[in-house]
Amino acid sequence: MNIAQALFLGIVQGLTEFLPVSSSGHLVILESFLGINIGSKSLMGFDIILHAGTLVGLLIIYGTVWLKMFRAFFNTDIPSQPGMTGEYRALFLSLIVATIPAVLAGVLLGDLIVDSFRSTTTVGMGLIVTALVLILGERYPQKHRTSDLGRLRALWIGIAQACALIPGLSRSGLTMGAGRMTGMSRRKALDFSFMMAVPVIAGATLLTLIDSFAGTLELPALSAVLTGFFSSLIVSVVAILFLRTWIIKRSLSWFAVYLIPMGLWLIIF
């Protein structure tokens, strides 16, 4: 893998991680198209390094929210926002609940996913499923909508995130779609989806670094790794800021216009 390929993949990761179109699926497509052949586990490791760039981008945007959640969890008042301690504590507990399914799926099924679900056909089917979830999220009967998240709803969104470990199933698409089904506004569904990505990506990045130092995982050259990381980071920050403004006024189901034709193309050809 050369620097140009790493730069391109980093840019694609930064854009597609937050757009509900599956970043891992697009990385699989492009890695196949570019003819990058360094082994499935090494490719997965590099993909996680790219995700680490998006993790830093998330911390830049949502760092103050995470700080307030930690302070609220340990019963520390938030001087700038009196009376908000309970709300931030509830959000923190909901994020913990939402993270559990992905952790269990990653530990129990991680190797199976790496070895069996990195084909373009699988990605194509995943893109179509993501499109259907987005459509259902926007078309769900209005009478069932509610502004309260709750632990059960957080668990439901967490299960959606766990399913998105399979390339082609968009993590942001499935979690935002699931959030919309529970009655969340687009903005709240987007913010919760992005914040719940932090512990999952952080855990995957830590495991990748441990495997790399232990010699069980071989990453590309350091120059390629750093190029991919920083390009993913910079583009991620821009993508987050754009989406937080854009998505409020537009239906998520519009992304199905891209996902379904792309999914069919991958399956057929």
The helical percent reads: over 70%
End-to-end CA span: 25 Å
Q: Give the mean pLDDT.
A: 81
Our count of helices gives: 10
Tell me which oligomeric state these chains represent. Answer: single chain
| SSE pattern, N- to C-terminal | HHHHHHHHHH
The share of residues in extended strands comes to: under 5%
Shape: globular
How many domains? The number is 1
Class from helix and strand fractions: mainly alpha
Q: Over all CA atoms, what is the radius of gyration?
A: 18 Å
Largest sheet: none
- The total of beta strands comes to 0
Description:
- With 269 residues, the chain is an all-alpha fold.
- It has one domain.
- The chain has helices spanning 3-16, 23-33, 40-73, 85-116, 120-139, 150-163, 171-181, 186-214, 222-246, 256-268.
- Helix 1 (3-16) crosses helix 3 (40-73) and helix 2 (23-33) packs antiparallel against helix 5.
- The radius of gyration is 18 Å and the shape is globular.
Short description:
The protein is an all-alpha fold. It has helices at residues 3-16, 23-33, 40-73, 85-116, 120-139, 150-163, 171-181, 186-214, 222-246, 256-268.
Features:
0% strand; 269 residues; globular; mainly alpha
Q: How would you summarize the topology of this molecule?
A:
Elements lengths: L2 H14 L6 H11 L6 H34 L11 H32 L3 H20 L10 H14 L7 H11 L4 H29 L7 H25 L9 H13 L1
Helix pairs in contact: 1-2, 1-3, 1-9, 2-5, 3-4, 3-8, 3-9, 4-6, 4-8, 5-7, 5-10, 6-7, 7-8
